[in-house]
């Protein structure tokens, strides 16, 4: 554990979605794409090639569960998974931590917690310039719905 590493910290309870033996799942602050989550390895590890077989195997099962939960929760159409870790290398002493960005994608509008989510880039690369922060009440509603279907 590296105390300066964001992913080594305990997730905020409001954003916390799920945990397994090796992975934490939490709702990303940016909800441009409804249900976007971060899936972070619990131990500090800076490279996918250093994942242990049991961590990778559990990750694959988690992918199946998360995708199923988002289909049930919000009728997600497809999913984008990315593991970039570029931001870590913007620091003088980089400390990358294996984590995945999970972006559900939608070919239709979704309304939840009084908000409308529309994926205008559906079928194309997600738009990195768009950012959407939502209220804690909306976060709780989204997290609760995902948990209900995990």
Automatic annotation (TrEMBL):
Extent of the signal sequence: none
Extent of motif Histidine triad motif: 97-101
Q: Which GO terms describe its biological process?
A: nucleotide metabolic process
Q: Where is the HIT domain?
A: 3-112
Which InterPro entries would you find in this protein's record? Answer: Histidine_triad_HIT, HIT-like, HIT-like_sf
> What's a Pfam family this protein contains?
HIT
State the Gene Ontology terms under molecular function. Answer: catalytic activity
Q: What is this protein called?
A: HIT domain-containing protein
């Amino acid at each position: 554990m590296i105390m300066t590493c964001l992913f080594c910290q305990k997730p905020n309870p409001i954003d916390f979605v799920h945990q397994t033996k090796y992975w934490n799942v939490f709702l990303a602050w940016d909800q441009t794409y409804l249900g976007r989550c971060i899936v972070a390895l619990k131990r500090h590890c800076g490279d996918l090639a250093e994942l242990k077989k049991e961590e990778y195997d559990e990750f694959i099962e988690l992918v199946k569960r998360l995708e199923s939960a988002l289909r049930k929760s919000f009728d997600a159409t497809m999913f984008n998974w990315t593991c970039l870790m570029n931001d870590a290398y913007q620091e003088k002493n980089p400390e990358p931590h294996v984590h995945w960005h999970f972006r559900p994608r939608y070919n239709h509008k979704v309304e939840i917690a009084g908000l409308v989510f529309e994926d205008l880039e559906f079928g194309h690369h997600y738009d990195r310039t768009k950012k959407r922060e939502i209220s804690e009440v909306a976060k709780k509603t989204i997290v609760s719905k995902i948990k209900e279907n995990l």
